[in-house]
Design brief:
Length: 294
Amino acid sequence: MKSGREKRDRGKRKDNERKLRKTEKSRNDELSRIAKASYYAEAEPGYEEEFSDKLEGRNPVLEALKSDRTINKILIAKGAQVGSIRQISAIAKEKGVVLQEVDRSLLDKMSETGHHQGVIAFVSVRDYVTVDDILDIAEQRGEPPFIVILDGITDPHNLGAIIRSADAAGVHGIIIPKRRAIGLTPAVAKASAGALEYVAVARVPNIAQTIEYLKNKNVWVVGTDSTGDRAYYECDLKGAVALVVGSEGEGMGRFVRESCDFVVNIPMKGKISSLNASVAAAIVMFEICRQRGL
């Protein structure tokens, strides 16, 4: 028979094994969380379905860069800046593709093939256009530009819903930032209910600078915020206009707000003082549509 001490020792060993397994599981869960955060910057968790549209391995990523395929972001393992990885980095920087170095273990967690070779690229479901392309679309239609600028939308369902409303309201194009915002992903395409095929989307490195560019093109820039000076329906929105909608939690950034020609609000009677970003965007978009008689 085993002594009481032996039994206690065996019990302690089992407890330690359980703790080790629990610690390892927590570590793996944390790695997965960090891996997702590395792509979606400050976005909230819950984007598992976004990781289906990606390229893994040096040759696939390199060829995608050479063919000018639209790439949202490239993740490279730290310490892997040799050979073709160095070439990938050089081309990505030249083309303005967002590039980020991460621990190899994070790439291991995201990899579906198990052969990422130190690089994973997240590709867009549709090519982006330029801001000038959007202005050209308005000119071709014989209409004053009607543009929507999104300052940091991170929820794919919000972006998809905004694209859907934009198509219905006759918007010529949408502008989104390259960083700290959702790009054109499979979930966005799904949430748009097909509207993504008909709405031009430009992706720019700096929203405030883009606003200044549009103002130089005689486009009035209208921000939306609960602290706006006037109700949206009290303003003349019939001319060339760019509507700015801020992020879900923070609204417009300070520099973006200061760049706007004026800021409007959406009057509300309820106790909740804010609306979902896609709802707020749709309300003002259709007011612009109404004023234009579209």
